[in-house]
Amino acid sequence: MSPTIIRFKGYRFYFFSREEKRKHVHVSCPEGEAKFWLEPQIILCENHRIPARKLNEITKFIGEKKNEIISAWQEHFSG
């Protein structure tokens, strides 16, 4: 199961239910997919075909929504 956390400008932000314990978020869009670590800071972990310009937009958005994403992570993985 991979619950959608947020949708923004054609991006889907989501988690995989059975993945590693380090907080991170996956992002998909028509161009590709990426994975970002959330702690200790936002860092691009993997990128598959998303252009740098869009990665910058995604990184900025994650920074703006970091607390919301981490809260969703804690709620999802506490159950």
Would you give an account of this structure?
This protein is α+β, with helices and mostly antiparallel strands and 79 residues long. It has one domain (4-77). It has one helix at residues 52-77, and strands at residues 4-8, 11-14, 24-29, 32-37, 43-48. The chain has a 5-stranded antiparallel beta sheet with strand order 1-2-3-4-5.
In short:
The protein is α+β, with helices and mostly antiparallel strands and 79 residues long.
- If strands are numbered along the chain, what order do they take across the biggest sheet? 1-2-3-4-5
Q: Unreliable runs, pLDDT <50, ≥5 residues?
A: none
Task: Measure the end-to-end span.
Answer: 13 Å
Number of helices: 1
Give the strand content: 25-35%
Number of strand segments: 5
- The overall pLDDT, averaged over residues, is 94
The residue fraction in helices comes out at 25-40%
Which overall shape is indicated by the principal axes computed on the Cα atoms?
globular
Broad structural category: alpha+beta
Report the C-alpha radius of gyration, rounded: 12 Å
Number of domains in the coordinates?
1
Main β sheet profile: 5 strands, antiparallel
Order of helices and strands: EEEEEH
Q: Notable features of this structure?
A:
79 residues; alpha+beta; 5-stranded antiparallel sheet; 1 helix; 33% helix; 34% strand; globular
Q: How are the secondary structure elements laid out?
A:
Blueprint: E1 4-8, E2 11-14, E3 24-29, E4 32-37, E5 43-48, H1 52-77
Antiparallel strand pairs: 1-2, 2-3, 3-4, 4-5
